[in-house]
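tool=predict chain=A
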Amino acid sequence: MPYDPEKHHRHSIRLPGYDYAQPGAYYVTICTKDRLCLFGEVVDGEMRLNNIGRVVKEGWFRSADIRQEVQLFPDEFVAMPNHIHGIVWIVEHGNVGMVGAHGRAPLHHAPQHRAPRSLGSFVAGFKSATTRQINEIGQTPRAPVWQRNYYEHIIRTEDALHRIREYITTNPLRWHLDRENPDRTGRNPDEEMWFSTI
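tool=predict ok
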């Protein structure tokens, strides 16, 4: 179901009862307010970031530098013209830097204690920091950049991780069919499959 500000501002779209501070991998999509294309353009299947897009990309990875419970990887992030996709790894403090066979923190390990920050805290901090920087560039104090909420999916299996990573890295190739593209030329038949099965 597409984002509807009249419906979604009234309740959370997070999974009820789920602890988003527990260690794991989370697939996140964040859209710009009103789906405005602020971050650059896709040319020949390649995303070309403008200055604002570079602020967003740098802000994403800077977030991991200031949050020791978060790990982010370059091949698990893409900034599109009006949205971003990324995988956020929340790890236990003792497991920061620990990697599994796929080069990432293990998908399943029993937490001995809760991580001190949640996925929501990470997203809020990222949105706040990038909004401030973008408004400084454009000299537009307090102008909204991001939509109010964000989409997330808890990654539970290696197969889901592989498919989501592929979706992220190949997203610019499918921009002309992307459901977030205001000028899309058709529908991506794989898109519903990606989002219905992950």
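The chain has one domain: 19-197. The longest helix spans residues 119-138.
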